[in-house]
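F.,

This is the one I mentioned.
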């Protein structure tokens, strides 16, 4: 018997073993592809989070499990602003709150004079004018949930 004939006939002699081998190889390939997709998605998500608001970098407190638990003093923000090569720096206040049927709602507080540093685009309504006024800008989801027009400023 020729070697090539042996190679072609052998897989069909024990079909159960062949089926298990093919199944194992398929599961292995699917696992590797899935892990690659998940890793790339996490990488993209992390990069988007760290560059939120168009920032080149985001500074958070060390040894915290999530950036929402990070606390940085305004004095530190001022020190970062004075670093050579840094155009501007702004501190933001972030909190997660439940909202109706949504599992969470992210609240972001920023100085009205620094809102141009964020990637917030007001499509309807107006931007904040008085830093001491009790006003907020709602995003699309929040505005739709509260039957208000997109981006309206609310008093």
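My design for it:
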């Amino acid at each position: 018997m020729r070697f090539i004939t042996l190679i072609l006939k052998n897989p069909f002699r024990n079909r159960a073993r062949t089926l298990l081998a093919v199944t194992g190889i398929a599961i292995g390939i699917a696992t590797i592809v899935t892990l690659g997709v998940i890793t790339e998605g996490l990488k993209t998500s992390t990069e988007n989070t760290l560059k939120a608001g168009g920032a080149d970098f985001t500074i958070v407190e060390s040894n915290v499990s999530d950036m929402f638990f990070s606390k940085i003093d305004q004095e530190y923000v001022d020190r970062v602003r004075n670093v050579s090569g840094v155009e501007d720096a702004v501190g933001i206040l972030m909190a997660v709150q439940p909202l109706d049927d949504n599992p969470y709602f992210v609240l972001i507080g920023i100085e009205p004079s620094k809102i141009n540093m964020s990637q917030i685009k007001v499509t309807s309504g107006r931007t904040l004018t008085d830093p001491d006024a009790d006003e907020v800008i709602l995003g699309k989801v929040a505005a739709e949930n509260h039957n208000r027009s997109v981006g309206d400023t609310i008093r």
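Strands lie at 93-99, 102-109, 136-137, 153-154.

Talk soon.
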